[in-house]
């Protein structure tokens, strides 16, 4: 059943796709920066502004006018991928129902003094019902900012129902996330009584591949700022391929977000439920195809989450975080580093990970010191429902399946799990069947053979998220489906090859590496 709020977004997208190529009186074509900036000021609902092939240096697009749900304002490359925004470029989407389509952002040189982390992005969305689609952003420049932000307007208005889809974000060498979704200002993020309203944004079918930066420097996506904010955003069908920017591939900092059917391939970090309760990680693939670096799965803070139908196959794991596919945080409830508790972990496939399948005492030493310093009660993850999971290991594995530093019960309920050729790690009285058997076949066949009849299908255990058009309990009942995404399935349709060298080799070209070194050295001063 489609909920009303998301219906409006979907209708907007369908109308845009069906009518974009039609010739009508409002279609216009520009071929210079001056024409582009001038015509943008006059666009009205239903207008489409085509941009001729070529380089548009220092283009500053400010879209103040609004379209309508059935008549969006569209700014589109005449030939997608053949229009380049370079130099001191920026785009501000201040009107509603506007679409930016088919632009390639590269070779920028913005003034780094005029841009900062957690400020507006290269493309800043200030109003609701806007869309950025079929665009590429490659190593744009040396100014620290996100590539795309949803930003609060000067009057405090929060953008809602925006979509970022079929875009590529590669070799970003500056600090701050690639995409920031905001519903409170940074200065207000921890003030009592200020709660970020639901955003209802969607990020889908995008490609991310960006190099490691020193420190906590900005990952792929940030959703919200603080645990009391509502997100209600859907992040689905994206490929994170060596998305190495920082330890947090995604930092989810708000409540009620859903992460569905994404692929995390060779990523030096984890998908983090960092702030905010009641979030869903559903049918994602966490995989490594080499051992160039250490790779991660999911790190969980907070409560009332669902971790379901995911696949974990990591040939290396993150030593500093505790070498696991799934990490459950120790800490104090409702804190900066919130305790992970009251979590459903169901119908997942943990397949020969070179580390623990689940670390029930993640970052314990750090949390002991932190809680002592703050004077808050340290607790360990508890009240967990672990059911319908398949754990496959081998007799030569260096790690048991589970790590828990103590012998306490923690009120963990185990139901209908199976472990094949595994050292369990600690005693489990019931709910985990241990099997010694040679396992052959493809991922789908193994999952079907050994766990499909044990899946947790009681829909009463789960919930849907208001405003997101997914029947989450029904999806969970089906178990893990599909395959990891490939580059051909995401990003702009016109982008036939991955830009740069990092995704393939884990290294930047000499030219981009030199620029990257300049950025990091400047930050260190």
From TrEMBL:
Q: Gene3D superfamilies, alphabetically?
A: Single-stranded right-handed beta-helix, Pectin lyase-like (2.160.20.10)
**Which superkingdom, per the lineage?**
Bacteria
The region annotated as signal peptide is: none
Q: Where are the transmembrane segments?
A: none
Database matches in CDD domains: PL-6
Q: Which InterPro entries match?
A: Pectin_lyas_fold, Pectin_lyase_fold/virulence, PL-6
Protein name as it appears in the record: Chloramphenicol resistance protein
């Amino acid at each position: 059943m489609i909920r009303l709020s998301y219906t409006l977004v979907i209708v907007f997208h369908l109308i845009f796709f069906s009518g974009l190529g039609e010739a009508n009186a409002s279609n216009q074509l520009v071929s210079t920066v001056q024409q582009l900036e001038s015509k943008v000021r006059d666009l009205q609902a239903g207008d489409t502004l085509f941009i001729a092939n070529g380089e548009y240096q220092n283009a500053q697009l400010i879209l103040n006018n609004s379209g309508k749900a059935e008549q969006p304002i569209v700014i589109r490359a005449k030939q997608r991928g053949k229009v380049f925004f370079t130099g001191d470029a920026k785009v501000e989407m201040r009107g509603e129902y506007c679409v930016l389509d088919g632009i390639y952002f590269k070779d920028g040189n913005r003034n780094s003094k005029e841009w900062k982390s957690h400020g507006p992005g290269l493309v800043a969305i200030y109003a609701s019902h806007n869309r950025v689609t079929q665009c590429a952003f490659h190593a744009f420049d040396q100014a620290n900012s996100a590539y795309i932000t949803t930003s609060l307007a000067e009057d405090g208005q929060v953008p809602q129902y925006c979509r970022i889809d079929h875009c590529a974000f590669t070799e970003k060498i500056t600090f701050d996330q690639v995409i920031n979704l905001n519903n409170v200002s940074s200065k207000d993020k921890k003030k009592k009584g200020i709660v970020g309203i639901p955003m209802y944004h969607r990020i889908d079918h995008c490609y991310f591949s960006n190099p490691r930066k020193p420190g906590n420097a900005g990952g792929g996506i940030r959703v919200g700022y603080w645990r009391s904010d509502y997100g209600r955003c859907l992040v689905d069908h994206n490929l994170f391929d060596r998305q190495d920017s920082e330890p947090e591939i995604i930092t989810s900092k708000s409540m009620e977000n859903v992460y569905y059917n994404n692929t995390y391939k060779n990523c030096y970090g984890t998908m983090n439920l960092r702030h905010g309760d009641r979030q869903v990680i559903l049918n994602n693939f966490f995989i490594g195809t080499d051992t160039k670096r250490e790779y991660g799965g999911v790190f969980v803070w907070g409560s009332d989450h669902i971790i379901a139908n995911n696949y974990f196959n990591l040939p290396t794991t993150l030593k500093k975080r505790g070498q696991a596919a799934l990490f459950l945080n120790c800490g104090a409830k409702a804190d900066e580093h919130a305790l992970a508790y009251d979590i459903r972990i169901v119908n997942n496939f943990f397949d020969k990970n070179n580390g623990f399948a689940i670390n029930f005492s993640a970052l314990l030493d750090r949390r002991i010191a932190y809680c002592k310093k703050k004077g808050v009660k340290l607790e360990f993850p508890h009240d967990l429902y672990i059911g319908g999971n398949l754990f496959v290991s081998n007799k030569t594995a260096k790690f048991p399946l589970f790590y828990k530093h103590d012998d306490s019960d923690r009120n963990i309920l185990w139901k209908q799990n199976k472990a094949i050729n595994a050292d369990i790690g600690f005693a489990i009285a019931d709910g985990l069947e241990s099997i010694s058997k040679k396992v052959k076949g493809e991922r789908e066949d193994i999952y079907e053979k050994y766990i499909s009849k044990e899946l947790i299908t009681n829909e009463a255990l789960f919930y849907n998220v208001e405003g997101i058009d997914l029947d989450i309990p029904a999806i969970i009942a089906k178990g893990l489906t599909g395959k990891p995404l490939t580059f051909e399935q995401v990003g702009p349709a016109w982008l036939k090859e991955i830009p740069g060298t990092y995704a393939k080799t884990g290294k930047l070209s000499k030219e981009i590496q030199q620029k990257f070194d300049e950025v990091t050295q400047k930050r260190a001063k």
